[in-house]
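A quick word before the example. In earlier lectures we treated sequence and structure as two separate objects. From today on, think of them as two lines of the same record. Here is SH3 domain-binding glutamic acid-rich-like protein 3 written that way.
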Amino acid sequence: MSGLRVYSTSVTGSREIKSQQSEVTRILDGKRIQYQLVDISQDNALRDEMRALAGNPKATPPQIVNGDQYCGVWAQGLGWGSVVGGPQ
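And the structure line, produced from the sequence above:
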């Protein structure tokens, strides 16, 4: 796969996950960075794919992947240059 992908879920009871997902997409949209939103709640295989790419069997969304390269989990203060190859 190519391009920036953000693994997320549309089904969660966690306010923290919802907030982190919203923040990631808000920033990417604000910077007009194209990405594919992958909803892991639609298929367990997508959840397994996200966890395999993250190298963590317990990884939760949002997770960010650029091409086949795992870029990281969202965290406040993350330098976006490390995620999308742009300025920080």
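Notice the following. The chain has three helices and four strands. We will return to this example when we discuss secondary structure assignment.
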